[in-house]
Amino acid sequence: MKEQIRLLLKLQEVDERLFEARHTIKDVPGKIAVLQDQATKFDALLNEERGKVEEAMGYLREQNGMLKDEEQRIAKTKQQLQLIKNAREYAASQRQMEAVKKAKMDREEEIIKLMEAIEGSKQKLAQHEAEFAELKSHLEAEEAELTKAVKKAEARIAAMENERNQAASGIDANVLRHYEIVAGRIEPVVVPARGSVCMGCHMNIPPQLYNILFRANSLEICPSCQRIIYLEAALEEDGDSAKNNDNAQGDSSD
Ligand SMILES: [Zn+2]
């Protein structure tokens, strides 16, 4: 029975480590999703910024096209002016040409401002692109780090599962089933009793049960919480089987 308790304690200890290892892995996909989400958001912002620059460049092309039209109109009017004999008509055409010249000058000013603004936007975009490249490599490194940690944890988990199977194989099937059922509700399942108190639920253990625990011939359950209880003193007696951990079968006297 002592061996059964020892195996159960071993199983419990492995289960605790397994739980922790699985817990660290459980968070990783979420963390990776956060990193990827960050990259996606930054990428979307950059695209928006690129779109705005493109839009401004389109507007600039339009303005340059209109400027060309105005230049043509001015040249054409100049030619026409030479052919006009009527003074009133001449004055009217000239006024018209002055108006176009004014529009052209305004447009030239507008184009210069636009070009400056586009230049500024392009510089900012280049800066943001550089920042994003840096952020992205940082995110990728972090993701690689997490993936590596998961692989390591998975290897550790596989080793622990092996350890668990070894401990479990030595435990009586009914006891193991009880352990699994209780483990689904409360942890730890295997606890010592001290001073006739269960260390799991801190309730008193009936005196006759406490006496049974002293003999350590059977596996006992706390009547209050259903945990498997044992006496440390009883377990420490006869150190032989304590040291002898290799695949011990225990005394399966149920
Ligand atoms: Zn209890």
Note the beta-strand portion.
Answer: under 5%
What is the CATH C-level name of the largest domain? Answer: Mainly Alpha
The major sheet is characterized as: 4 strands, mixed
Estimated radius of gyration: 42 Å
Q: How far do the termini sit from each other?
A: 9 Å
Helix and strand layout, with pairings?
Layout (H helix, E strand, L loop, with lengths): L1 H82 L3 H83 L3 H11 L6 E5 L2 E2 L8 H9 L4 E2 L6 E3 L1 H5 L3 H4 L11
Parallel strand pairs: 1-4
Antiparallel strand pairs: 1-2, 3-4
Bound molecules: zinc ion (ZN).
Offer a few descriptive terms.
mainly alpha; four-stranded mixed sheet; binds zinc ion; 6 helices; 4 strands; disordered C terminus; 2 domains; 254 residues; Helix Hairpins
Explain the overall architecture:
- The protein is mainly alpha-helical and about 250 residues long.
- The chain has 2 domains: about 15-170, Helix Hairpins, CATH 1.10.287; about 175-245, no CATH class.
- About 75% of the residues lie in helices and about 5% in strands.
- The protein has 6 helices and 4 strands.
- The chain has a 4-stranded mixed β-sheet with strand order 2-1-4-3.
- It is rod-shaped.
- Bound molecules: zinc ion (ZN).
- The site of zinc ion has 8 residues, from loops.
